Amino acid sequence: MKTSLGKRFALSFLLTVSISILITSIISNYMIDKKFDKYLLEEHEKKIDKVKSLVEELYNPKNPFKKIHDSQIQRYAVLEDLYIQINDTYGNVVFSSGQSHLVHKKMMGSMMKHMMNRQSNSTLTSYKEESFPIMKNGENIGTIIIGYFGTSNLNERDIGFKNTLNQSFLISVIITFIFGFIISLIMSKELTRPLGKITRIANEMRNGNLKIRSEVNSNAREIDELSKSINYLAQTLQDQEKLRKRLTSDMAHEIRTPLTTLQTHVEALMDGIWEPTPERLQSCHEEILRLKKLVNHLQDLARLEQGNLNLNKTHFSLSNTLEKVIDTFKPQYAKKNLKIIMNILPKVEVFMDEDKIKQILFNILSNSYKYSNDDGVIEIGLKKDEKEIIIWIKDEGIGISNEHLPYIFERFYRGEASRSRETGGAGIGLTITKTLVEAHGGKIEVESEIGKGTTFIIKF
To answer: What is the DSSP letter of 101?
Structure first.
């Protein structure tokens, strides 16, 4: 079962937060417990040292332990939950704090064990006694016995501190989990809301609404780029749809004209209106040739676009080939009194299909002648650098508007509204030219401005 991206993101974020909290808590608890146990041991040792120091201070060499019944030791024993017993060097008990004050300690031992979650072998309720010698000026003057319940004499304050610490960890875990849950919801919504809008727009496009556009504004670079890509795709599909409709119209026009001519001529001949003279049969033949030429162009274009083009590459001088092609156009250019300027770098040797290169040049030079004004100038250049060979053909003709410029290499596309075959042609030449250039691993670019002319730039 598929889940939404928002749920997956939220669950992943919560899982990451939970695992991080768990690891942090385990490590923190372990380190704190270790440090706390060490602290308790040190405090326990300090208590014993304090009792020993106190007893040693009360020692009188002339009358040992005369002041031993001083209430100071008794108060200290009650305060620290200790049993204190002092024996002289002969083993006689000279002071005992008694164990009545330890009854409360023993009763709460079981409670502490559950509160601290100790193991079953916990020694919180076990009673221990430790014996230490009493020294005065390097002389053993007696023995002190210290008894207590629990490990390292753990008292209520220590238990309270540890419980507070554990509670703090638990509260921190709960608060952090809630905070992480809220943040995950916010972040998942920030991520999935624009994606949801883009998905709805894509579905609209799939249903045929190519006019829709994404207006998603996001601080996430990837989402912003996705939104722009969706808009670019919608615009491209919309343009392609227009081209497809125009292609159908243009093809119908290109085929209808010769067919209509043939139909009228044949019907006139069949009805006896016309005599089948050689001139009239020649007119029908020209229309048939025009249809055949159009079909051949379509076949060539289909073969080129399907990658079935076989290039017959040879070594030849591109400079010489370009000059020869220009020479064939000079008589035609002279009809419009067009001036030719050649900036051709000599001795540019290439390994290409010479016939296909000539076809490329013929197509572009034919367009330059067709759309150039009388007495204009056509510049033809060839140069070479370390990376590429560049051919450019620049005219001073009518130019191409920015509206039509992106589509001039589309099949059957013609910028002007006229459908005259004398000016418009079939609209396939530039499509074939672009395909031939790309077949050689090159690219073709166009720069144009209405009323100032057009420049075709070919780079190999």
So the answer is: G
pTM of the model: 0.47
Based on the structure, what is the number of domains in the chain? 3
Range(s) of the domain holding residue 368: 312-459
Sign of the C-alpha dihedral, residues 267, 290, 413, 420?
A: negative
Q: Is-contact 410 370, C-beta < 8 A?
A: no
Nearest CA to 418 out of 230, 253, 268, 278 is that of 253
Q: Which residue has the tokens 């591109």?
A: 318
Domain boundary among 308, 340, 374: 308
Q: Hey, is 402 helix, strand or coil? A: coil
CB 299 within 8 A of CB 306: no
* 37 and 160 part of one domain: yes
- Residue 183, burial from CB neighbour count under 10 angstroms (0-12, 13-18, 19+): middle
Chosen domain end from 308, 340, 371: 308
Q: Helices (DSSP H) in 59-141: which residue ranges?
A: 71-79, 103-107, 109-115
Same-domain status, 327 and 384 = yes
- Kindly report, residue by residue over 143-188, the tens digit of the pLDDT: 888 887 765 555 566 667 777 777 777 787 788 778 877 877 777 7
pLDDT tens digits, one per residue of 388-447:
999 999 988 888 888 888 878 876 666 554 434 444 455 677 888 888 898 888 999 999
Cβ-contact 231, 198 below 8 angstroms = no
